[in-house]
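Sample intake sheet
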Amino acid sequence: MRAAVFDGHDLTIADVDLAGPQPGEVLVEIAAAGVCHSDLHVMRGEWSVPLPLVLGHEGSGVVSGVGEGVTGLALGDHVVLSWVPNCGSCRYCLLGRPAQCQVVAEVVAPNGVLYNGTSRLSLNGEPLHHYLGVSSFAERVVVPQSGAVKVRPDAPLDLIALVGCAIATGVGAVRNTAAQPAGATCAVIGCGGVGLAVVQGARLQAASLIVAVDTVAAKLELASRLGATHTLLVTPDMDVVAALRELVPVGLDFIYDAIGKITTTEQAIGALGLGGAAVIVGLPPTGQRASFEPLALAEADQRILGCNYGSAVPARDIPRLVDELMDGHLDIESLVSARRPLEDAAAALDDLATGHALRQLLIP
């Protein structure tokens, strides 16, 4: 099959061998793969991953092969891929926190393999690594059965690729991580694909005020259409904390950092109101440090919440989000800035790096 292989320097489309599914695994024909900043972090060398690997962690498709012992999935099922293919039996899975699955955190993600410590991917006889147990920049994938979540067959196969990361993360940040109550006020710093999903999550949670914050006017216009009640166009010399406090003098109940830069994280903390929570959704490069004043945080009874994958329970949340798309409550099409062939993977990542692209779909 064709796949986008990253060797640490270049991303190239290569003819890759994919072994069939082993027990507990399924083969999926990829319908679409989303291009995400997490892929860009790998390309920039900002995250340590085993190389070479097949990139991509957001995708959707149709089950075309089923390994021994697989239950709940059959040939022809439409699925959304989950980059946390949780084991279901570790401590965190049993606590109802599959986004923190130990097998994924300790075996799958850091080693670029599947559950049994081996890869199904190879190039010229040499093993390739999986990216986050998915590797969706390809024509096909083999994933653990929990990494392919069955959804209704009438949903558009290309659009639902984004449910597997951007939508689950953004909406989940509001619903699951923050548990934002109806009537709360909030701001979303960064209106890319994930940030716009946060905006929609806040709307679905009946927020009384949603401030969209970005440096690109077109993104703020889209945020307004998706549910933002106010927008803040950031200029290079702007004091974002002061601007947010001018808009909401008492501070905001929730602020979502959907970028993950040190400056945006510190802005999110600085503009909180009493009892507020800063939710760190965007992921920074490894090793960076933000600062805050612990006394001020404690006296104001504020919180800083880390958000991994929207604290999702994929088997529960992904089908629900697809239902909300089909019921007209979620707008995913507006997040798609381009549909491109798989051969455009490197160019799509370049466009994402400019800050103007939203979610791009690679269609193999």
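Comment: The chain has eleven helices and 20 strands. The chain has two domains: 2-164+331-363, 170-307.
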